Amino acid sequence: MTPQSDEDEVWRQIVASFNDTAERDSADQPWPDSENLPPEPTRRVVRPPEEPEPAGRGPYAEPPGHGVEAGDPGDEDEGHYEPPPPPPLPKLDLPTKLAWVALFGGPAYLLVAAMASWQMEGWALFTAVAAFIGGFVALVVRMGDGPPNDSGWDDGAVL
């Protein structure tokens, strides 16, 4: 027999025995002892103390002078977080501004011209597409491939 016919015969046997029951019953299967559970797990009962501790004396009490006192103006802001204002955006130079205008201006002109059913000349169409491609290329070229100049010597996280 060829190796291909042996493989075909094995597949035929697998398909023929697909709906057959297993030879051994599941009760005959060995079960590892590590999987057995104890008859009844032990339960731990936690009861509250019989005498409640005075306020501010428990294990989780804050030292005096810490925390929110009654009448403190921060009472209503419990859990409210207000993030600091974001840093200002960097100032862009003229070539970068022109690249952004070209990137969005070319497709915007084409969209407005198509929506208004304007007759577009060949040179205007070429200029809009060239502006889009030129703006994209200018931004990618000016992006650079290194870290920013002000990133420091290690460029790592600040804790």
Notable features of this structure?
159 residues, mainly alpha, 0% strand
Spans where pLDDT lies below 50 across 5 or more residues: none
> Total number of β-strand segments?
0
Helix proportion: 25-40%
| SS-based class | mainly alpha
Rg, please? 38 Å
> How far is the first residue's CA from the last residue's CA?
71 Å
The SSE string, one letter per element, is: HHH
Shape: flat
Residue-averaged pLDDT: 79
What characterizes the major β-sheet?
Answer: none
Give a short overview.
With 159 residues, the protein is an all-alpha fold.
Strand and helix layout:
Layout: H1 3-16, H2 94-115, H3 122-143
Helix pairs in contact: 2-3
In words, what does this structure look like?
This protein is mainly alpha-helical. The chain contains three helices and no strands. It has helices at residues 3-16, 94-115, 122-143. α2 runs antiparallel to α3 (122-143). The radius of gyration is 38 Å and the shape is flat.
